[in-house]
């Protein structure tokens, strides 16, 4: 497309945005890209349609004009106006918990990613929010039935990339039948996913499906490699803003991966964790995975599994779910119950840091912690996000360092890898941090912020290189602090800082030719240039404090 053509296309987008109703709640930021053979919803503003993930916010949703709202939405709006400010903010959080899971179900239906028998199980327990907030992406729901997932796949084609888990949750009020047990083939991935939308298809446009595919396969490669490179029982995964993520259950279903997992911790807002506890409690496929199996031939042991639906807490030998405000997790006195936050921090340190315990006088093997943050950092104030990242980075310990100050018993040390999926509104360029970038990035920011969602994090860190510099600064600070605490004779290895970032466009271009051809044929992708423009504004970033040479498989 020529420069003149791009300019004309941009002007056309602006005209369509002005003509479109501004009151419809944003359901899918990629509603612009819709198959011609299916009905289309009225187009939302351009930057709303061109987005792979909208961060959640505590800001209350703004009222929508009556001309663009259904009678049910009008009633919900009246109810929400009567709620206190904090309740309205919580409703906004709950409503935006659906985006990525619906996108995942769409990619599953279309055959982009392998079956996930667990994702749809988190749909049934979601309460309907008082009103969909402006942060919830708009989607053109297709009522025409979809062909089964296997119809999109070439005969004999195996799907080697593991499935993706979303940090956000499902569409509120939906219900689907459970698949036939854990690992039950395509159950819950094809027909089950279609039922997830209450009888309507969850299909998303091809560009969004490809974005979901790139995001999920890349993150899964990193997570699975992280586990494989960890000692047996030596890996701790912390998913912040976890929502309805099914990753823990998929790891547990893989005998090779689960043997490396020491613990899996999920953190999110209380309303989200309470809904997740309800989903877990209702599904035998989900609850059985919480019960440790000592012998492959033995039955799972339910002892030690605790589900508290009222508080939104799950604790078990290998999995824990806690309500948490990420903005204050790193502070000494956090939230309404500082002691609860201190217990949470102690829980994380226990599984992330190696040391000699009273139960075992022998040094523990090296511990490795992966912090996973998908579409989380963009809505946090930079100072809050930096404090959170620094606290997680401080979990790293050189070999020979103990688990706390003054404890210098010989151990294998502790490593930390932080992995995030983020917006980069200035694209892949090397422009200075803090600008709005080009036309496309400005459209993204203006649309989201016009709905009361100032993305401080996205503005402060707007390119992949900005995220790389951020991780470099934070991790070097953590390494220097640890070096200052530790005594030289107690260390055998020093911590090494590694950082990097890749846009989804880079991942697309690096795809194997045969796999790219398979993906392109699933839904007859034609607009490759449009795809790459969008994918250039999202990136996967990482930073690690490691004791030896390591490589991120991206």
UniProtKB/TrEMBL annotation:
InterPro entries: LCMT1, Ppm1/Ppm2/Tcmp, SAM-dependent_MTases_sf. GO terms for biological process: methylation. The keyword Transcription does not apply. Its EC number is 2.1.1.233. Belongs to the methyltransferase superfamily. LCMT family. It is an enzyme of class 2 (transferase). The keyword S-adenosyl-L-methionine applies. It comes from Tilletia horrida. It holds the Pfam family LCM. One of its GO terms (molecular function) is protein C-terminal leucine carboxyl O-methyltransferase activity. Residues 181-197 have a biased composition (Gly residues). It catalyses: [phosphatase 2A protein]-C-terminal L-leucine + S-adenosyl-L-methionine = [phosphatase 2A protein]-C-terminal L-leucine methyl ester + S-adenosyl-L-homocysteine. Keywords: Methyltransferase, S-adenosyl-L-methionine, Transferase. Residues 1-94, 150-201 are annotated as: Disordered. This is Leucine carboxyl methyltransferase 1. Residues 1-11, 60-89, 150-159 have a biased composition (Low complexity). The gene is PPM1.
């Amino acid at each position: 497309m020529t420069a003149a053509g791009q300019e004309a296309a941009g002007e056309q987008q602006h005209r369509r945005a002005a003509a479109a109703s501004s009151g419809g709640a944003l359901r899918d930021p990629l509603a612009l890209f819709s198959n011609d053979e299916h009905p289309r919803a009225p187009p939302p503003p351009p930057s709303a349609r061109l987005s792979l993930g909208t961060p959640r916010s505590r800001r209350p949703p703004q009222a929508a004009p009556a001309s663009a709202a259904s009678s049910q939405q009008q009633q919900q709006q009246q109810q929400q106006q009567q709620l206190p400010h904090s309740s309205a903010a919580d409703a906004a959080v709950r409503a935006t918990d659906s985006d990525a899971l619906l996108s995942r179900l769409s990619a599953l239906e279309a055959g982009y990613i392998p079956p996930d028998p667990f994702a749809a199980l988190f749909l049934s327990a979601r309460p309907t929010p008082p009103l969909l907030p402006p942060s919830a992406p708009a989607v053109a729901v297709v009522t025409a039935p979809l062909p089964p997932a296997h119809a999109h796949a070439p005969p004999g084609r195996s799907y080697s990339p593991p499935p993706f888990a979303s940090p956000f949750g499902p569409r509120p009020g939906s219900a689907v039948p459970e698949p036939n047990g854990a690992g039950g083939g395509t159950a819950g991935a094809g027909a089950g996913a279609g039922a997830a939308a209450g009888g309507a298809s969850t299909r998303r446009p091809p560009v969004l499906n490809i974005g979901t595919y790139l995001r999920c396969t890349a993150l899964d490669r990193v997570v699975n490699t992280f586990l494989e490179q960890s000692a047996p029982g030596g890996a701790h995964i912390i998913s912040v803003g976890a929502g309805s993520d099914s990753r823990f259950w998929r790891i547990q279903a893989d005998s090779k991966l689960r043997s490396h997992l020491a613990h899996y911790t999920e953190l999110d807002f209380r309303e989200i964790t309470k809904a997740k506890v309800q989903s877990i409690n209702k599904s035998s496929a989900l609850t059985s995975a919480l019960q440790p199996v000592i012998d492959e031939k033995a039955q799972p042991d339910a002892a030690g599994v605790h589900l508290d639906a009222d508080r939104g807490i799950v604790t078990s030998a290998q999995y824990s779910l806690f309500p948490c405000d990420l903005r204050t997790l790193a502070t000494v006195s956090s939230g309404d119950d500082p002691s609860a936050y201190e217990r949470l921090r102690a829980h994380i340190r226990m599984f992330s840091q190696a040391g000699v315990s009273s139960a075992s006088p022998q040094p523990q093997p090296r511990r490795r912690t992966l912090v996973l943050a998908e579409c989380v950092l963009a809505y946090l104030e930079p100072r809050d996000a930096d404090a959170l990242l620094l606290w997680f980075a401080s979990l790293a310990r050189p070999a020979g360092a103990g688990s706390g100050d003054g404890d210098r018993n010989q151990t294998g040390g502790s490593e930390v890898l932080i992995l995030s999926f983020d917006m980069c509104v200035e694209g892949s360029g090397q422009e200075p941090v803090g600008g709005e970038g080009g036309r496309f990035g400005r459209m993204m920011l203006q649309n989201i912020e016009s709905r009361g969602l100032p993305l401080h994090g996205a503005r402060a860190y707007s390119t992949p290189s900005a995220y790389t510099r951020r991780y470099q600064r934070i991790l070097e600070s953590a390494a220097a602090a640890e070096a200052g605490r530790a005594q030289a004779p107690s260390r055998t290895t020093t911590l090494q800082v590694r950082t990097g970032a890749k846009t989804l466009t880079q991942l697309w271009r690096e795809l194997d030719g045969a796999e790219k051809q398979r993906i392109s044929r699933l839904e007859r992708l034609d607009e490759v240039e449009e795809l790459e423009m969008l994918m250039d504004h999202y990136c996967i970033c990482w930073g690690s404090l490691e004791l030896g040479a390591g490589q991120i498989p991206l």
